[in-house]
Amino acid sequence: MSGDRFERWADEVTYPAELILSTHHLVAGECPPVCPDAGSWRILDESALLGEGRECYERAAWSLLNWRAHRRAGVGVGAWRGATVDDVVRVRFAGTDSPCLILCVESGPTATTMTYGTLPGHVECGEESFSVVLGSDGLVWGRIVAFSAHARWITRLGGGVARAVQTMITRRYLEGMRP
Predict the structure, then answer these.
(1) In Å, how far are 5, 8, 57 from 85, measured between CA atoms?
(2) What's the pLDDT score for residue 166?
(3) The CATH fold of domain 3-177
């Protein structure tokens, strides 16, 4: 990642710069330079078996990168193309309109990952990484790692409900990746 890009992102996202791409490292099974503190952030790590085989992997990866997983989860996405680094997308759910900055998109023969961070106006503050992995055993897994804190009064007021909805939507995203 270039220094200029990182500095620009640090000025735009609504969470500390040292945490940028930490979920990307975690979803890839790596240790990030700085981990989000579980005392300050809600850490979410969910995975699901999506199926098996190359065709399943390719279809699930396509669903992730082209917003089908989000839309199948009942979440609107204001994006004019597939996930692209530096694009701003608007995630819409239950009357909210939450902007996110695409920080990373990687697609390879056995792993596809997309990471976005929250921008001012998002109902939460934090970062989320989505991955689809084709294992050596032929099984295809989807995984989502996120850290967040409430950013608006409405989510702070309904904290428990907001967390339950966040977990529900995360699981729906995983279902939405399924071919």
Answers:
(1) 10, 13, 22
(2) 80
(3) Alpha-D-Glucose-1,6-Bisphosphate; Chain A, domain 4 (3.30.530)
Q: What is the pLDDT of residues 125-165, one digit of tens each?
A: 999 999 999 999 999 999 999 998 876 656 555 556 767 87
DSSP code per residue over 15-57: S-GGGTTHHHHHHTT---SSPPPTTTSEEEEEEEEEEESHHHH
Domain boundaries, the chain: 3-177
pTM metric for this prediction: 0.91
- Backbone phi, then psi, for 33, in 5-degree steps? -55, -40
Choose between 39 and 23: higher pLDDT: 23
Can you say whether residue 136 is alpha, beta or left, with left for phi > 0 and alpha for psi between -120 and 50 degrees? alpha
Q: What is the 3-state secondary structure (H, E, C) of 129-176?
A: EEEEEECCCCEEEEEEEEEEEECCHHHHHCHHHHHHHHHHHHHHHHHH
Q: Are the CB atoms for 48 and 54 separated by under 8 Å? A: no
- Counting every residue, how long is the chain? 179
Q: Which residues, listed in sequence order, are joined to residue 131 by a DSSP beta bridge? A: 113, 143
Residue 128 structure tokens: 């989320």
Distance separating alpha carbons of residues 24 and 72, to the nearest angstrom = 23
179: its two tokens:
């071919």
